[in-house]
Amino acid sequence: MANSNGDHGAKDFIQGLAHVNILVPPGTLEQAHAFYGGTLGLRSREVPKLQAGTLACKAPAHIKS
């Protein structure tokens, strides 16, 4: 749906997320889990074997609009 200027806003453009990879500084994984899991409602999944040791966690996005 276009706004009064005829432009489409981000809420009309973005329908959802398939997944997100989140990199966090060393020692902050618990804080990241609390924020992304508790506040945003994302769920962690096991890191793929090829990425093990390079990413803290892979969290598929399950955000309801």
Q: What report would you give on this structure?
A:
- With 65 residues, the protein is an alpha+beta fold.
- It has a domain at 16-59.
- It has 2 helices and 2 strands.
- It has helices at 10-13, 29-39; strands at residues 20-22, 57-59.
- It has a two-stranded antiparallel sheet.
- The longest helix is centred in the middle third of the chain and has 11 residues, at 29-39.
- The radius of gyration is 16 Å and the shape is elongated.
- The model has no long low-confidence stretch (mean pLDDT 72).
Number of strands: 2
Report the C-alpha radius of gyration, rounded: 16 Å
Placed side by side, the strands forming the largest sheet appear as 1-2
Structural class: alpha+beta
In whole angstroms, the N-to-C terminal distance is 16 Å
Question: Layout of helices and strands, plus pairs?
Answer:
Blueprint: H1 10-13, E1 20-22, H2 29-39, E2 57-59
Antiparallel strand pairs: 1-2
What key attributes describe this structure?
single chain; 23% helix; two-stranded antiparallel sheet; 2 helices; alpha+beta; 65 residues
Quick description:
With 65 residues, the protein is an alpha+beta fold.
